[in-house]
Specification:
- By secondary structure, this protein is of the alpha/beta class.
- It has two domains: 2-135, Rossmann fold; 143-245, OB fold (Dihydrolipoamide Acetyltransferase, E2P) (Beta Barrel).
- 34% of the residues lie in helices and 30% in strands.
- The chain has helices spanning 11-24, 37-46, 63-69, 85-93, 105-117, 124-135, 186-193, 235-245; strands at residues 2-7, 28-34, 51-55, 76-81, 97-100, 143-147, 152-156, 160-166, 169-174, 179-182, 198-202, 205-208, 212-216, 222-225, 230-232.
- A hairpin with a 4-residue loop joins strand 14 (222-225) and strand 15 (230-232).
- It starts with a strand and ends in a 5-residue tail after the last helix.
- The modification 4-aspartylphosphate is found at residue 55.
- It comes from Niastella soli.
- This is Response regulator transcription factor.
């Protein structure tokens, strides 16, 4: 059995999540439920779980502050939260998982499955990226955590030329001709990169605007990238892309 601790200041949310885990994730045993961050700190230090379900919005100390106070993070982490775009963007950037309340059964099962697969892999670098993104939003982070089938790959953001949708996966093409298959949809990868020089130019493509060599006109037209690749531009995204390529000129 894989042990899990639930941290949430709302007892009903704790009970609901515990019931969902019992019914749909039989490999998970809830070893503790904490309704405050201080109680969670004590529980985690005394009996470290293998998976921590952590609420973000809590009084006294929120979920991110709790993580900062832990001496060691040797568990997998799944955030639970109401809709908070700022927090979610930071979580996505660091390739951590989150569940929106009310928690849906299938989303819970998918998040737990990913956590179980990564159970032996440490999180410190991801947590560091998360906290930097949260508390220093103006700081330019030059690396991003990309989840793959083998684990996590840390890559320099500027090394990405373009990203291509491949069903529920995304292919990232890098300057060194490496191709990385990310176990995230293109929409999720786009959210991770949107604060940098990237743009969605087609349903299937997100490009690094710094790597565009040429735009060829047409109904939507197409881009020629620095590696010689051609990328279609959809008609409804053309104007947005041109504005980004020519700031102040449109």
């Amino acid at each position: 059995m894989i042990t899990a601790t639930i941290v949430d200041d709302e007892p009903l949310c704790c009970e609901s999540l515990a019931t969902l885990l019992e019914n749909y994730c039989p490999a998970i045993k809830v070893s503790d439920i904490c309704v405050s961050a201080p109680a969670a700190l004590k529980s985690i230090s005394e009996h470290p779980p293998q998976i921590l379900f952590l609420d973000i919005e809590m009084p006294q100390m929120n979920g991110f502050e709790l993580l900062e106070r832990l001496q060691e993070i040797n568990f997998q982490l799944i955030f639970t939260t109401s809709y908070d775009q700022y927090a979610i963007k930071a979580i996505q950037f660091s390739a951590l998982d989150y569940l929106l309340k009310p928690i849906e059964r299938e989303e819970l099962k998918a998040a737990v499955q990913k956590a179980v697969q990564r159970i032996q892999r440490p999180l410190p670098e991801q947590i560091e990226m998360l906290l930097q993104k949260l508390y220093h939003p103006t700081m330019s982070l030059n690396k991003i955590a990309i989840p793959t089938l083998e684990g996590l790959q840390m890559i320099f953001i500027e090394s990405v030329i373009f990203c291509k949708a491949e069903s529920n996966y995304t292919i990232l093409v890098l300057k060194n001709k490496q191709r990385i298959t990310a176990s995230r949809t293109l929409k999720e990868v786009e959210a991770m990169l949107e604060d940098h020089s990237f743009a969605r130019v087609h349903n299937s493509w997100v490009v690094n605007l710094n790597e565009v060599e040429k735009y060829v006109k047409g109904e939507g037209g197409y881009l020629i990238m620095s590696d010689g690749s051609t990328i279609d531009v959809s008609r409804n995204r053309k104007e947005m892309m041109l504005k980004k390529l020519q700031p102040g000129k449109m």
